[in-house]
Amino acid sequence: MAKVSLLGVPTDAQTFEIAIATLLKWAQPPGMRYVSTCPVYTIMTCVDDPAVMAAVSGAAMAAADGMPVVWMQRRRGHPEAERVYGPDVMLALCERGVPAGLGHFLLGGAPGVPQRLAEKLYARFPGLNIAGVHSPPFSDQLDAPDPALVALLNDSGANVIWVGLGSPKQDLWMALYRPLLRAPLLIGVGAAFDMLAGVKRQAPAWMRGIGLEWLFRLAQEPGRLGKRYLVHNPRFVWRVVLEELALRGSRRS
């Protein structure tokens, strides 16, 4: 992995295979790591909110979960950079963790979603160890850890806790709970719960490959995602253009 700063956010430029190999190692004890998956929205939330910036900066890996992030990593001198997409990460780690008996805890989603996701994963990967599932009550407040939730997660014996609370809440949650949890690895995967459970449709592979997944998701949920894509995406482009100009100026001086 190579660290690439985008608007001050320390993202990781890497191939997908290197990311998965790294996560498989981190899922074994000892370890106290968490991983943020970063599309444009997460980057811009970091820019706007120091608490989110601190949470993402504290992650052992800030993976490029959006093609614009990958494109900027490549532009900054890392042609090997690939998208490390949350749903694909979950599928790959579940599949490759079966021989090692990795235990997975599914935390997030609306009531019933993690249970449905577990059924889908069981059917796809025989022998998969699902250590537990939980749909926490919705709340934007993360004032203090919930002792009952800490006990539930620790008692599960999970190696990997998948956190599907959406960004930036999942990043803040992982930063808050990480010191209290015994699982070696926490991974925030946002909408992967809904997509892999079949609750929401996933964009076709060709749209994901050329960076148009945002358009597909916007068409599905214009009310919820309108600001995310129609405001933050143009802001990202403008800010990285300014950053590029500043970098060029510093190289010349």
Describe the model:
With 253 residues, this protein is an alpha/beta fold. It has one domain. Helix content is 51%, strand content 16%. It has 13 helices and eight strands. It has helices at residues 16-26, 40-48, 50-57, 67-75, 86-97, 113-124, 147-156, 169-177, 192-197, 205-209, 213-220, 222-230, 232-252, and strands spanning 2-6, 9-13, 33-38, 61-64, 103-108, 129-134, 160-164, 185-188. Helix 8 links the parallel strand 7 and strand 8 (185-188). The longest helix has 21 residues, at 232-252. It is globular. It starts with a strand and ends with a helix.
Characteristic terms for this protein:
253 residues; alpha/beta; two-stranded antiparallel sheet; 13 helices; 8 strands; globular
Low-confidence stretches: none
How far from one another are the termini? 29 Å
Q: Portion of residues in helices?
A: 40-55%
Overall, the morphology is globular
Overall SS class: alpha/beta
